[in-house]
Design goal:
Layout: H1 5-27, E1 38-39, E2 42-43, H2 46-49, E3 59-62, E4 72-77, E5 80-90, H3 96-99, H4 101-106, E6 111-112, E7 119-122, E8 127-135, E9 138-147, H5 155-177, E10 179-180
Antiparallel strand pairs: 1-2, 3-4, 4-5, 5-9, 6-7, 7-8, 8-9, 8-10
Length: about 180
């Protein structure tokens, strides 16, 4: 085979292209996968929160919006909300799941979830659970509400992740608030 100028430049172009891709990939490496171990001032298994968070440059967990008996927190990546968690201690006898049916519908296809508190609903972009409890010697109920969820992209996977978080976090947040089942 005869060597020509064209044959010699092909490997050089290929190497230059690979170098450009490598530099571009290195430039994107400032993206981080975040780990959240605390929701609304309560410990949480970071693996339960991870499915809801994209890679990004900045993570913000804002729990300054909490008040006594009402823990609240927003989890944002790159200033975009990905998880909003709200807890409330309320008087018993009010069927919150029925009352919130419309708001759960706006979160997409609400369906009951078995074995979580006294009742739970999982939707495409959020979830809610209610559990009877005793708070400061009085019969009460605890409501845990999660929304603002768009990840994982697969709806079935997202709903499964919501159910796992709701199931695990309800007893933790209730105990931290002093609302005993």
């Amino acid at each position: 085979m005869r060597t020509t100028k064209k044959n010699l430049t092909m490997p050089v172009r290929g190497a230059a292209l690979l170098a450009a891709v490598a530099v571009g990939a290195a430039g994107c490496s400032s993206q981080e996968k975040f780990e959240v171990t605390d929701l609304c001032g309560r410990k949480v298994d970071s693996a339960l929160v991870a499915p809801f968070l994209p890679e990004g440059e900045t993570l913000k967990v804002d729990d300054d919006i909490s008040a006594p008996e009402q823990p609240r927190c927003k989890v944002s990546v790159d200033d975009e909300l990905h998880l909003y968690v709200r807890g409330n201690i309320d008087k018993p006898g009010f069927d919150l799941l029925k009352a919130s049916e419309r708001s759960m519908r706006r979160l997409g296809n609400p369906a009951p979830a078995d074995g979580i508190g006294d009742g739970a609903t999982i939707a495409d972009h959020g979830a809610m659970a209610v559990q009877a409890c005793t708070y400061k010697g009085e019969k009460s109920q605890y409501i845990l509400d999660i929304d603002g969820v768009d990840l994982p992209k697969d709806t079935a996977e997202r709903r499964g992740a919501l159910e796992e978080l709701l199931r695990a976090h309800l007893p933790v947040i209730m105990e931290a608030e002093g609302c005993r089942p």
